Amino acid sequence: MDTCELAFAGAAEQARRLAAGAITAPDLLELYLDRIARLDPLLHAYRVVVAESARREAAAAQSRIDAGERLPLLGVPIAIKDNVDVAGETTTYGSSAHGPAPERDAEVVQRLRQAGAVVIGKTTVPEMLLWPFTETITFGATRNPWNVDFAPGGSSGGSGAAVAAGLAPIALGSDGMGSIRIPATWCGLFGLKPQRDRVPMAPHDDAWNGLSVNGPITRTVEDAGLFLEAVTGESGFVDAAKNEPRRLRIALSDKLPPLLMARLGRVQRTALDEAGRLLRDLGHDVVVRDPDYPTSVMFDQALPRYFRGCYDDVQTLAHPERLEARTRSFARVGKMISDRRMTAIRAAESVTAERIQAIFDDVDVVVTPGTARGPSRIGGYQRRGMLSTLLSVASRVPYQALINVTGQPAAVVPWGFDGNGVPTSVQLIGRPSDEATLLSLAGQIEKVRPWAHRRPPVS
């Protein structure tokens, strides 16, 4: 395997090769550091690369491998999204408003290190994680390796760009309104939003009033299963990714959440139609059926928690006066949502979730388009205010947020490409706590429609 193929091999395959002695952890790390030095000045996927500490970690990992130790991610590099604490490195949230560097790793980073992973750097995000594009006044624009005129998505945009371009084999993202699934879609990767509370969020528990979760952006389905096993201590996810599912009853739905102004694009419609035909060919029982979305669910549940989550996060910043004007406007709206109202919103979540999830009384998985349209052009929102930006981005990514309200798992599977050469996807939504079925179904799709071999122009 040459160095380029190794860079795109994925975390699980690299872990096997490290354990077998076919490669060494220091050499694998240097491969990525070299690629970052060559390619990231254009893409800007990393906010910071921690080369020296990563070299120490890789050397220590190799010593453990040589001693016969076996851990799920021993010696495998991983990129960490810049809203997750890494000891000694600032957590910027994409802003100059941040305070000092934390003294401790976030719990998920602790668990990744305990599983043997080597932290290579922190990836870029939009300010306060608010948008499905990754551009800030402080840190500049992150570009999509498939077409550098376009965004990679957000808010885990740097994580998506890094894995897509072969600048990391796996990356940690977070998903509060689609922020794993959106960049995974537009970067041609597998992205998994786990069940709420599956992956630790500490010290930022209940982020965005329960909307947000941590999860992986990966090249393969197996890599996502490996991540879950590493950070949860639970078994069976890797086997699920490898084993075909039983015959499933699958609902296809392109229904938009009520009151959202969006239009499904032609290539996104084609992806859903093709997925339906493929799933029938694979022996599944495929029907056309829509979840029962409450009429005002976006305004009663998703948006208030989103706005108030931003306001709450802004209160933790050392220098909120440094925030971009658009972010300050967003936080001002969040301030108007009182503690009392938020308590009532959270209390009503179970009724909303029960109504939306009623479709799973009859089906095992719901399949939707991954997004309604492709990403924005770089700089497309520079002169827009908060409301204009929100309305525009919502029309591109309407299929994600309600799954954050219900808390159940969802994943995106790469599909085709749009007219700009940017990848598309379909979204798989599972029953509560049933990541295993999503991994099995995604793995089955991957076998007959593989994507991990694809290379973007910037790679």
TrEMBL record:
Domain Amidase stretches: 27-439
GO molecular function, a single term: amidase activity
Highest taxon listed in the record's lineage: Bacteria
UniProt EC number: 3.5.1.4
Reactions listed under catalytic activity: a monocarboxylic acid amide + H2O = a monocarboxylate + NH4(+)
InterPro entries: Amidase, Amidase_dom, AS_sf
UniProt xrefs under PANTHER family: GLUTAMYL-TRNA(GLN) AMIDOTRANSFERASE SUBUNIT A, MITOCHONDRIAL (PTHR11895:SF7), TRANSAMIDASE (PTHR11895)
UniProt similarity note: Belongs to the amidase family.
The name this protein goes by in its record: amidase
Source organism: Mycolicibacterium rutilum (Mycobacterium rutilum)
